Amino acid sequence: MTERWDRARVLALAADASSLRAAQPLASGRSWAVTGAADESADESADEGADEGALWGECLGSAATPYRTVVDLSGPAYRCSCPSRKFPCKHALALMLLWSDGAVGTNGDPPDWAASWLAGRTAKSADPKDVKPPTDPAAALRRAEQREARVASGLTELDRWLCDQVRQGLAVSQRSGYRHWDDIAARMVDAQAPGLAERLRALAAVPYSGSGWDGRLLEEYALLRLLAAAGRDQGALPPPLRDTVRSRIGFTVRQADVLASATPVRDHWHVLARRDLDQDRIRTRRVWLRGRRTGRTALVLSFAALGQSLDDSLAVGTATDADLAFYPAAVPLRALVAARHDTVPGGPPAGTTAAGLLAGYAAALGQDPWLDTWPAVLEATPARAPVPGLYDTAGDALPLHPGAGECWPLFALSGGHPLTVAGEWTPRGLWPLTAWDEGGRVVPL
Amino acid sequence: MSTWHDLVTASLIGTERSVVPAPAIPGLPATEDGTGDPAAVLLDRAALLTAARRAGRRPDRAEPLPVCEPDPRPAVSPAASRRLARMLADADAALLIEWLTAVVARGLRPAAQHLPALLDQARRLRSKHAALADLVAQAGGPRARWLAGLNPDWGFMAAPTLPGDDAWRLGSRGQRRAYLAALAAKDPDAALDLVKNGWAAADPADRIMLLSVLADGLGPAAEPLLEAVLDDPAVHARTCAADLLARQPGSALGQRMAERALRCVRLERSARGPHLVITPPADCDASMRRDGITPGPAAGSAPIPEQARLLREVVARTPPRTWTDSFGLTAAQVVALRSGTWTPVLFTGWARAAIAQRDHDWTAALIGHALAGRLPGTAAEIQALGQLARRADPVRGVPDTLPELWPDAPPVVGAALGVLRFRYDMLKELDHDHSG
After folding, report:
1. Phi, psi of B201 (to 5 degrees)
2. How far A233 CA lies from chain B's nearest CA (Å)?
3. What average pLDDT does the segment A402-407 reach?
4. Which of A109-118, A400-409, B233-242 shows the highest mean pLDDT?
5. Are A384 and B150 in contact (CB < 8 Å)?
6. Partner residue opposite B12 with nearest CB, options A214, A413, A443
7. What is the spatial distance between Cα A250 and Cα A246, in angstroms, rounded to a whole number?
8. Residues B30, B24: contact at Cβ < 8 Å?
9. Considering only CB atoms, which chain A residues are within 8 Å of B65?
10. What are A58-70's pLDDT values in tens digits?
């Protein structure tokens, strides 16, 4: 009998945080009209411990007919009648989560619609050359075109909505509450633009973010309109900028494609800082790396459901000799660890001045105007007035992000002396994440 | 000339009711003519200006802070720091106090990044654990004082000491306590006089504070006063004085309790070996009441038969040496004596007495007995074992002198062993820091 996988193993298959997030509400018996699992290891000669078997189910979505989802656990490989181009799609993820919870009964024979695909896979996997899930190229192209069309009409709708907001006045949005942004975010989900949906959902907090909220909301609306315009006209953009625009809209690049297409960058990568964010029952971990030789900065993301543990392999303050594969972008930051060679000594990284940090951010903004989180390593002294911040030897000061709180440990470490601080620079200020004490020891803040 | 601020104002009102401003961006040609949907024009100008403002941001100025004077003491090791972080998360005042005391005694200091959390805990717990704030101040040294100067929440750290006897006449209860403790150390007779003269005017909480400072600071010299308070009309003060006397080795109250206890518990040697024969007190007479034993079930305590409760209260106030001395046995041998259904009563009573008198032999014997499998079963015993593990001499937590945890050991035994090991490791870690 196939051993049921634990949740962590299922979650690890997700392509990104948004598919995890989308799958969770579907991972309940109420969302499924039919589910089933088959144990196909009847073949005695099957390798011991090999994962065998299949799952299938009919998911009651927003469409008139349920989506039909099949998972071949031996791949694993997935097939679903939904239009998503993600593998696994949220339905397949949800079905596997349900199975992992023990909520899918083993009931022998799959229905015909599942059986035919599974039979096709068995035949193919007999051919060792073909390990890819079978895709009908024409169907895949059709799905891709369909999505482009949906996204394009979503972008038009978003643009119209943004102009409406400014026409009526932002004061109206402020009075209408969270629903206001949830509604347009939901429409962007329908338009298969999850990146836009996420940005819109985050806006609901802006009117409650203290004085200056109106200016911050206008900035976000303006940048969203710029993104919508760029998205509709992406053919005219240089390829790296087009990649940036598409990823911000919510088109994902598969890890395998990144690994296949990017030239890996080998360096001693210093783990500068780490930040975990919880949103909608998904935890996202951002790990910032800095290459000692190349001076390049990289961002490694990992995802987990709330309550599950995140990837701990990159410990702040250490350094790793590794190959990184960067996702294509105008300012390539996000990367995958393609190969890890060795652990090398850590120690405090070299910090820059306030002016140096701002210049670096300005140059990056020239490539990607939507960039609002920029890695920072400063050599500076904390101050309390006029606002909590850090100043360098030139006396140039940068504020701390108001959301980062009082940061007392940072002050305690400094005692009025300069120290090395790593964090995220944002338009609202620096979010400090790591400091190095006078002995050069790393202290996560 | 219009600015970003004008764009924000226009967007707030809405382009239906306002004109779209055209802010200039230095270094860029004037914006396009602005025909078309005014809302779209506004958003496009805002996008351009947003990027320009973000990219063109200039650093601010800041007011430097005073520089903290150096602290020559070395910081504790990273391992000790990690342990402190765990203790801070658990907010366990007793362990924090023990750890900080050991840190101060070894001439070390906590890592600077933990000072804010230590100051917060000291503030939160300072009504119940006055000692914690003092220890944080001592262990934190100049860096803690520097921090307290930046955050009004930690103002308690900077509480000025009042000159002369102003602290006594005008100070808060904490300041009065500090004044009296200092006086007791210098001039015990003056401290006693001060308490006697102030007694009538003191409120009940003050009286308890006065008595405990005297008992801690003076030892036997405070006994006559405490003994006199046993006849005080206020029940609070009476109970407090009786508890303090019971804690004092060699006190007359302890002697009276020992006599009572030996009337209740007799050692008999029979063919089946020595065992204890129990005759519990018949009732709570006037002399027992004077010595702090209250009749009837105490509020909140588990309902047990009255006679068993009275026996436990007597044993709990009896100096543990009474048993070893009069039976001619070691603590471990006494604890192992058979006493039938009275075992749990005696165990809890002995545990309380060993803790009150800080008798490490007895604490170790009781823990050893419980951990050897002759387990406490009742809730009171479990609680007693937990207390013992927290108060035992940590050197007794040396890993190889402790029994191995057997497979189906109840959680309470595992917890007690865990606490002992934790405390042992905690101090060992600091010794290692010190020598290294």
Report:
1. -85, -15
2. 15
3. 90
4. A400-409
5. yes
6. A214
7. 6
8. yes
9. 381-384, 411, 416
10. 887 666 778 888 8
Task: Sort A41 into a burial class: Cβ within 10 Å, 0-12 / 13-18 / 19+.
Answer: middle
Question: Chain A partners of B58 at a C-beta cutoff of 8 Å?
Answer: 358
Mean of per-residue pLDDT scores for chain A: 87
User: Could you report the per-residue pLDDT of B142-152, keeping only the tens digit for each?
Assistant: 999 999 999 98
pLDDT of residue B420: 81
What does A386-435 look like in DSSP terms, one character per residue? SSSEEE-TT--EEEBPGGG---HHHHHHHTTS-EEEEEEEETTEEEEEEE
Q: Residue B132: pLDDT above 90?
A: no
Please, what is the end-to-end C-alpha distance for chain B in angstroms? 68
What does the alpha-carbon distance between residue A435 and residue A413 come to, in Å, rounded to a whole number?
Answer: 8
CA distance A374 to A364: 9
Distance CA B81, CA B204 (A): 41
CB contact under 8 A, A443 and B113: yes
B408 touches chain A (CB under 8 A): no
Any chain A CB within 8 A of the CB of B143? yes
- In which residue are the tokens 């015990």 written? B188
Minimal-distance CA residue of chain A relative to B61: A397
Partner A contacted by B97 (CB < 8 A):
no
Strand residues in A27-128 grouped as ranges (E): 32-38, 54-59, 67-72, 77-80
pLDDT digits (tens, 9 = 90+) for B191-217: 888 888 888 888 877 888 888 788 777
**CA max distance for chain A:** 75
Give every CB contact of residue A220 below 8 A, 6+ residues apart in sequence: A199, A203, A206
Question: Which chain A residue's Cα is nearest to B120?
Answer: A408
Q: Which residues of chain B lie closer than 8 angstroms to A226, CB-CB?
A: 44, 47
User: For residues B189 and B76, what is the distance between their CA atoms, to the nearest angstrom?
Assistant: 41
Residue B436: the pLDDT is: 44
Percent of chain B with pLDDT over 70: 90
Answer yes or no: pTM beyond 0.80: no
Q: How far apart are CA B34 and CA B20, in angstroms?
A: 9
Per-domain boundaries in chain A: 7-134, 138-249, 255-344, 354-444
* Burial of A289 (C-beta count, 10 Å sphere; 0-12/13-18/19+): buried
Please check whether residue A425 touches B, CB under 8 A: no
Measured between CA atoms, the residue of chain A closest to residue B111 is A413
pLDDT of res. B109: 95
Pair A320, A269: CB distance under 8 Å: yes
Q: Does the distance separating the beta carbons of A389 and B150 come in below 8 Å?
A: no
Name the nearest CA neighbour of A421 among A404, A433, A438. A433
Per the CB < 8 A criterion, the answer to whether B114 and B103 are in contact is no
User: SS3 for A381?
Assistant: strand
pLDDT in tens, B288-331: 999 989 887 655 555 678 888 899 999 999 999 999 999 999 99
Within an 8 Å CB–CB cutoff, is residue A382 touching chain B?
yes
On whether any CB of chain A is under 8 Å from the CB of B50, the answer is yes
| Mean pLDDT score of chain B | 84
DSSP string, B138-191: HHHHHHHHHHHTT-GGGGGGGPPPPSTTHHHHHS-HHHHHHHHHHHHHH-HHHH
